[in-house]
Design goal:
The strands form two sheets. Strands 2, 3, 4, 5, 6, 7, 8, 9, 10 and 11 form a ten-stranded mixed beta sheet that branches. Strands 1-12 form a two-stranded antiparallel sheet. A hairpin with a 2-residue loop joins β9 and β10. The chain has 341 residues and is an alpha+beta fold. The protein is 34% helix and 18% strand.
Length: 341
């Protein structure tokens, strides 16, 4: 009888310990997993007071390939203000040639959907074309200048390989030329005001010529700016001005969750003679012209903060809730065995 009474506390403690272990293991298996993608920046003071607005990271929908706000008001500007044959409403001053950094674009999408995948170029330090956008100074657009136009991909057969290399849709083959169709119908139909750009082959062919002539990775490299580095937007602007002799437009995507600005797009401008000019006076979304000693920069990036030029899409780092370590389970069992002897 006395022996059974001695065994009762032991069995009770063993039962309690096993229940605790089971509950902890179950809690671990149900704990939420927070996915985080981050790149460590150098220790730098972020001056938010002197910054311009930046776009938060979000995965774009179909309309998010838009280069400006596609509101119903913009549609009215494109279609409803025509006079005569509509050429006045569809007139423009400059062509904005936009190259995008694919790594930032892919990170942009994945932040909204961690399962999202995109097709990155095989070559390193390889900027791709986003588009050629006819634009009226100090205004948005014009856009969609020919409502009856259709996209004819057969016109691109002669340059298809170069298109897939330099002007790819980062969504991959599943998008079925969606980007090219979008760019032609929205912007190409307005660029067609020029004879040099009045069909798909001429329009996209001109973009390929500019991409092969103005190699952004080389221009940045000549200034010592390489992927996986941090620079100010002024340093980026100075590098491009030294390389081109003209003011560009520099665009960032801002990851508010990790307080990091990512270099996203570099835009350069041409007149109707297809000569390179300054992008001063161009109105694009949240773009701001900021003066600094020695020049000015057209940007939406934080002027006083580092801009990260990522080399790879940041990895998904998994943050787990606290787990009960296995070694602590072993120590608890040892203590219970010693205590109940």
């Amino acid at each position: 009888m006395q022996k059974q009474q001695q065994q009762q506390p032991t069995l009770f403690l063993w039962t309690i310990s096993l229940c605790c272990i089971f509950v902890l293991a179950k809690a671990n298996s149900l704990s939420p997993r927070v996915e985080d993608a981050g790149i460590a920046l150098v220790n730098t003071t972020w001056d938010e007071s002197s910054s311009s607005m930046e776009q938060p990271l979000k995965r774009p929908m179909a309309a998010d390939f838009s280069e400006e706000d596609e509101s119903s008001e913009d549609e009215e500007y494109s279609y409803g203000l025509e006079g005569g044959d509509g050429t006045a409403a569809h007139d423009w001053d400059v062509l904005i040639f936009t190259q995008q950094w694919p790594v930032t674009t892919c990170y942009h999408w994945r932040e909204q959907d961690p399962s999202h995948e995109c097709l990155l170029p095989q070559k390193k330090e390889f900027w791709t074309i986003h588009g050629i956008w006819p634009t009226k100074l100090e205004q948005f657009g014009p856009n969609f200048c020919n409502k009856s136009a259709e996209f004819n991909p057969e016109q691109l057969q002669a340059i298809l390989d170069r298109m897939n290399t330099y002007w790819p849709d980062l969504e991959g083959a599943s998008s079925q030329d969606w980007l090219w169709k979008h760019e032609w119908l929205k912007h190409g139909t307005c660029a067609a005001l020029l004879e040099e750009l009045n069909d798909e082959l001429k329009y996209f062919g001109q973009g390929l010529k500019w991409r092969e002539q103005y190699i952004m990775s080389r221009i940045l490299d000549d200034a010592g700016i390489h992927p996986d580095s941090n620079s100010t937007v002024i340093a980026l602007n100075n590098a491009i001005v030294r390389g081109l002799g003209k003011n560009p437009s520099i665009h960032c995507l801002y990851d508010g969750k990790h307080s990091i600005s990512y270099l996203s797009e570099i835009r350069i401008c041409f007149n109707k003679s297809l000569d390179l000019i300054d992008c001063d006076g161009v109105k694009q979304s949240d773009l701001v012209a900021i003066k600094y000693p020695g020049g000015s920069v057209n940007t939406n990036c934080h002027i006083g903060s580092p801009v990260h030029y990522p080399s790879l899409v940041p990895p998904l780092l998994r943050k787990e809730e606290w787990k009960f370590p296995l070694v602590n389970v072993y120590k608890l069992l040892q203590f219970l065995m010693w205590f109940t002897l």
